[in-house]
Amino acid sequence: MSRTTPSRTVEIISGERYVQAESPRWDGRDGGLAWIDMATGSLHRGLLVEGTVVPVSAVKVGAQIGAPIPLAEPGAGWAVAVDRDFVHVGDDGTVTPIATGIAAAGSYMNDGGGDPFGRFWVGSQSMPRAPHCALWSIDPEGAATERLGGVTVSNGLAFSPTGETLYYIDTLPHRSIEAFDVAPDGQLKNRRTVCEVEGGNPDGMTIDLEGMLWVAVWDAGEVRRYSPSGALLETIELPATRPTAVALVDRLLVITTASVGLSHPTDADGALLGVDVEVGGAPAFPWRGKSPSVSDDIRFR
User: Fold this and answer.
1) 11-276 CATH pick, 2.120.10.30, 2.60.40.10, 3.60.10.10, 3.90.650.10
2) Beta strand ranges found along 90-227 (DSSP E)
3) Given 3, 58, 111, 172, which residue has the most CB atoms within 10 angstroms?
4) Does the pLDDT value for residue 294 go beyond 60?
5) How far lies 99's CA from each of 90, 247, 299, in Å?
6) Peptide bond before 173: cis, by omega within 30 degrees of 0?
7) What is the DSSP string of 215-236?
8) Considering the entire predicted model, what is its pTM?
């Protein structure tokens, strides 16, 4: 049962509408925001100016774009999971392969995010849905290691600040949030269920500075805040039916949404939404690999 919370005002903060906006990331290098549109295979970047997202750039990356992660250094661009691969997207829009053929044939990259040790974690999905996908970590040298198999639709993930706990969503078949202990070398242990998510499909997820989990619930028109023990702390009702993912830009909860598959979308469906909350978050953990333009001789495996 959710606790009593202050009334929330949900604002549309983007002028543009997207078919399936996903994977918002707060960029700690310049304070900007990045997100993707899965339907167009594009990586978008913008700045928050007086509560509104002002677009800066859009780059077509690939047919099946999954998730972006900033590199550590200012101006070093972004690493992006796309199709079955992992690529670098420069600030000038240049797309350069880093590692190819990570995901199995017939599957493609979906959501992901960084950990405090500079690794990029990303999972895959396939059509039709079947439990033959996986979750990987990609280290700063570009080597991909499969961490979890038997995945159906790899979606939200969030690490505790120390990186010792991974919270993870494989949307199907159980519609639940899970947790793992993470060893220093990245091995996952002690898999357990945090809670089941009812009334919709759990999608993207982020963690706030109190260690609470914010989850976008597709087809429920809600974002929910859960404790690490699985208690439902708050539900925010949205004007959009299909929220896809969330990011905390300080104390602004940014929510990406989709209009895909809706016969009568509203003005909020496909928009970026914003909600002020009391507990903020931190910028996205970066991938600590090298930009190809910085070190062309780096060996990726």
Assistant:
1) 2.120.10.30
2) 95-99, 107-114, 120-126, 133-138, 144-151, 154-159, 165-170, 176-182, 188-196, 201-207, 213-218, 222-226
3) 111
4) no
5) 16, 27, 10
6) yes
7) EEEETTTEEEEE-TT--EEEEE
8) 0.94
